[in-house]
Amino acid sequence: MSTTDKARAASDDNGHDDEESPAFAWLRSLGPRGRRAFAGAFGGYGLDAYDFYALPLSMVAIAAYFHLSGGQTGLLVTVTMVASGVGGALAGVLADRVGRVRALLATVVTYALFTVACGAAPDYETLLVFRALQGVGFGGEWAVGAVLVAEYTSARHRGRTLAAVQSAWAVGWGLAVLVYTAVFGLLEPQTAWRVMFFTGALPALLVLYVRRNVSDAPAAEQRHTRRSPAATFAAVFRHGLLRTTVFASLMATGVQGGYYTLATWVPAYLAEDRGLAVVTTGGFLAAQILGAFLGYLAGGYLTDLLGRKKTIAVFAAASAACVLGYTRVPEGADALLLVLGFPLGFCMSAIFSGFGSFLAELYPTSVRGTGQGFAYNVGRGFGAAFPALVGTLADSWGVGGALVFGAAAYALAALALLGLPETRGRELAHVTVH
């Protein structure tokens, strides 16, 4: 084998590519091990979305079953997100201490187990506890999976590759809507919501795949071989990382506050404010989900082309505009509501495309899982205030009126970008603390 061939073979296995750039060069450049890691992270995040949406899609039925107010209903999502903030931060530390794959397995098992438990909850208080425990695993999966894949990926394709992982959310969301439409179409609401949660056992199949086929990237493996000092939360607040951690957490708070406000309350808005039936609601959500899937992929290309900050800023503004437009469609104009669902899903998802690459590039390998897990999930925890606020105000303002706070969340995200550097083109092995 020639020197050139050897170099090309090595680049294929280690996640670096040659200068050619066909449409799927990002996938080819991962190498065999990287592609298996991508499959594990993609599946984990897609099923993460499926288990999350078991609640928003069932909220009207759950509220009726337990006789809940809007505030109590919103609290179910808020508790999930606050717990996910804690779980995600802990999973990041775990990933730096025991490895990315082991931490990934722990998060998937946790969110699957407690999603199923939610279906057996005898009362509201028990459901609240189980949903919080589900949130611990739910919060950790993305942070760990994104770091796992990022460390297999070259700087040139990192935005597109991590955006493809993000697109799994739309796949899981779409699967959840299909199952919701079937389950609620066949069963009475008081039984259907429990069955919806029971289907959350699906991730058990993924655990078998990850255990047998996925391993950490060489850089992460070498760190554990050298027995480097254990990562701690304090490490991401050291001089040189403090500013990054604070502003990255604020950015994540705004983006996720806006996203989860919409993810939580749009199904209720369609059912209550617009009076749409289950099957019709599923059709309207399908337009939003298709937009979301394409938004993730398009956002990935833009984040590599324009840079991380510009892409997030553009879609923060576009998402805020879509929220305001979607909730002000006049009565009787349901066709316009269907049309606007596509750009709403596109923009609110495309803004996430650069998250995996941006956060990974802000931190050195020794604390990458800790930093990314902390910023993303603390942002998710604080962002939980937005769905809760909408739930509280929905009783008096209506869901559509209260959704305006989703636009305010996106404004916060745009402002937070002012305190962060642009990282496009940065190799992860060269990230240092300044």
UniProtKB/TrEMBL annotation:
Residues 37-424 form the Major facilitator superfamily (MFS) profile domain. It is a multi-pass membrane protein. Residues 1-14 have a biased composition (Basic and acidic residues). The lineage of its organism: Bacteria, Bacillati, Actinomycetota, Actinomycetes, Kitasatosporales. InterPro entries: MFS (IPR011701), MFS_dom (IPR020846), MFS_trans_sf (IPR036259), Sugar_transporter_CS (IPR005829). Pfam families: MFS_1 (PF07690). It comes from Streptomyces tubbatahanensis. Residues 1-20 are annotated as: Disordered. This is MFS transporter. It comes from the Bacteria. SUPFAM superfamilies: MFS general substrate transporter (SSF103473). Keywords: Membrane, Transmembrane, Transmembrane helix. It is found in: Cell membrane.
